[in-house]
Specification:
By secondary structure, this protein is of the alpha/beta class. The chain has 10 helices and 13 strands. Keywords: Signal.
Length: about 260
């Protein structure tokens, strides 16, 4: 090998070594890709808590609370729209930081931390066509009918875990209302604080009624942070800020805007 060739190889190696640190620094790490002042929040449609309008944008109880929480903590919000089941999966793998409208469930607590306190309380209700309220008089009646559910949702533990009930899963509450309205389901289940609003906004207003059977449970709604999120270490700060906002009467003020 000639002296010229050796010099060329040496120059090439020197160039590679000088570029390598620059290339390494240019690779996006999780902290570099996401600003520590920006929180990624997974959302789906769940009016009046999360109203997703293609023309008017996002509105609803949860969005108003998120805006106040972000202001309190000096954060920017990046909303990530996804189907409910996908949103939960993104919380599990850490591709989003937070969600709201979550019922407390042990399986979810494995990958997310719930912020205290709960910000809203609902009840589980079964809906049927008007005049058929007696078709579900007790829990046992559920074994004799088909019941529409939103896949991945939590209603009450006994029902959620009961594989003997013929449950028909769909992606949204709006689909449930449509299927009951078209007589494609005998009953649907929902949380009254959301389902009552959804039905009232639909073409089927006045055509449904609540079944006689009531589980008598309370479905408390929470904000939560993924355990894989950068913000997980700050969950206590989030809880304190949320508590401060709620103590100031925010939820009463906000809900009045959407429910009255």
């Amino acid at each position: 090998m000639t002296l010229v060739s050796l010099r060329c190889i040496g120059a090439l190696l020197l160039l590679v070594w000088s570029i390598a640190p620059l290339a390494a620094n240019s690779v996006d790490t999780p902290d570099a890709a996401q600003s520590k002042t920006e929180i990624r929040v997974a959302i789906d449609a769940w009016p009046p808590f999360r109203i997703l309008d293609e023309e008017e944008g996002y509105s609803g109880i949860d969005f108003d609370l998120w805006a106040r929480l972000a202001n309190e903590l000096k954060l920017d919000i990046d909303y990530v729209r996804c189907p409910w089941v996908r949103c939960l999966k993104m919380m599990e793998d850490g591709s989003v930081d937070a969600m709201s409208g979550l019922a407390l469930r042990p399986d979810r607590a494995l990958y997310m931390d719930y912020l205290e306190p709960a910000y809203y309380s609902c009840s589980t209700v079964f809906y049927v066509r008007k005049g058929r309220g007696e078709i579900v008089q007790d829990y046992e009646d559920l074994y004799r009918i088909d019941v529409g559910i939103v896949t991945g949702s939590a209603y009450f533990q006994a029902f959620d875990d009961d594989e003997r009930i013929n449950k028909v899963g769909v992606s949204t509450e709006k689909q449930l209302v449509e299927m009951l309205g078209r007589l494609r389901l005998t009953a649907i289940v929902g949380t009254d604080c959301q389902a009552d609003y959804e039905i009232a906004q639909s073409p089927y207003k006045g055509q449904f009624e609540k079944a006689e059977y009531r589980p008598g449970n309370s479905v408390d709604l929470y904000f939560a942070i993924s355990k894989k999120s950068f913000f997980h270490s700050k969950k206590d700060e989030f809880s304190q800020a949320l508590a401060h906002i709620l103590e100031a009467g925010a939820i009463e003020e906000i809900t009045h805007r959407y429910l009255h």
